[in-house]
Amino acid sequence: MAFSILNILKIVLYFWWLIIVIILGKLFFNYYRNYRKKIEKKKKEVSDWIVLEIKINREILQTPKAMEQVFAGLHSIKKGNIALEIMGLKKEIIFFVRLPKEYRKLFEAQLYAQYPEVDIKEVYDYFSTFPPFLPNKDFDLCGSELILTKPHHYPIRTYPFFEEPKEEKRIDPLASLIEAASQLQASEYLILQIILKPLDSEKEKKWIQEGTKEINKIIGKEEKKIVTWRDWFGAFVSNFITAIYTVPVWPESKSEEKTKQITTSSGDKEKVEQIEAKISKLGFEVSIRFIYIGARSIYDESASLSIPAYFKQFNTENLNSFKLNDSASTEIKTWLFKNRRTFLKKMNFYQLFKEREESQETIILNTEELASIYHFPVLKVKAPALIRALSRKGEAPSNLPI
């Protein structure tokens, strides 16, 4: 035993440099990967942004399926992101979109193709009229971010669930949010912010692979094991150190896939079908947050609860659901310096919201899921908060003199 230990020590003394090479190699790889990320981020930087207001005509008849087609067209953007915002104020509700200026024509073309009756106009960023820092002596705020309870390949409940063959029986989940906005008083603001950008090829590939892996796990299908150079290198180092007292073991690949005899329940079958359906559609990296701002004299934190209540409509027990991200919430649950820490956290949250910064913990939603949580209310939604354009936008006569 002493002889073996002595030989191991000699090997370590002779080949200590190999360990340093491995460590330096890993450090170089991490540095290069971070460098490439910075380069890619710099390429995607956008300096010119615009804010568009969307006014809705009384004659909206399209279902959320139309909005799904809009999102499919927006999947082609390469720079920056798109911030979809629904603002409730003074018993009204307004739709805003903030996006890079170079994609304005693309956005308008996609929207007018599905909703020819809407009116789109460029407006100033409404946050420019807000105080630069909140909370202050006049206004207070609260808010949070929303994330998924399960992995991204599990879908939420989508708009087909709310649709009925008969138009009069159709349910629009947006109605509850519109009604909540109608309860707001002057100097109260409730804003839902959905920031999205298309998945890049690397993230999309990983998302689909994770979904496929989950499906194989449910049906009991063993995956092919592909041996890479990292496996061989790791095996070489391990065998080199332990070769004195054990037989070398080399990685092996499984050439055949085997399916275990597992009885799949109806619930598991539904999971497989829903996961397959989700990963088959275009995916977006999404950040969802909401904020309630109110004058201190009428501040009512419970008004913000209408946003989580709205998202509960899309929750399912067997698939996926939304939940509040406690780490990103403005609420501090521990007692140590609670007031000061709450104030600083609210200030930071307000700046992230104002600058439309992406969440640290983003989620992945496909076009159908996005259309479910963000679309224009159908004709039968008649909440008083909804701003609708009084005039229909039409084409100019063909014989108009130039």
Structure description:
A hairpin with a 2-residue loop joins strand 2 and strand 3. The chain is built from eleven helices and ten strands. With 402 residues, the chain is an alpha+beta fold. Among the domains are: 41 residues; 208 residues, no CATH class. The longest helix has 28 residues. Strands 1, 2, 3, 4, 5, 6, 7, 8, 9 and 10 form a ten-stranded mixed β-sheet that branches. The N and C termini lie far apart (99 Å).
Structure, briefly:
With 402 residues, the chain is α+β, with helices and mostly antiparallel strands.
Task: Report the helical percentage.
Answer: 25-40%
Tally of DSSP helical segments: 11
Oligomerization status of the protein chains: single chain
Computed structural class: alpha+beta
Overall pLDDT score = 82
**Total count of strands:** 10
Distance between the termini: 99 Å
Major beta sheet summary? 10 strands, mixed
- Write down the secondary-structure element order: HHEHEEHEEHEHHHEHEHEHE
Runs in which pLDDT lies below 50 for 5 or more consecutive residues are: 388-392
Please state roughly what percent of the residues sit in beta strands, choosing from under 5%, 5-15%, 15-25%, 25-35%, 35-45% or over 45%: 15-25%
Query: What's the overall geometry?
Result: globular
Cα radius of gyration in angstroms: 27 Å
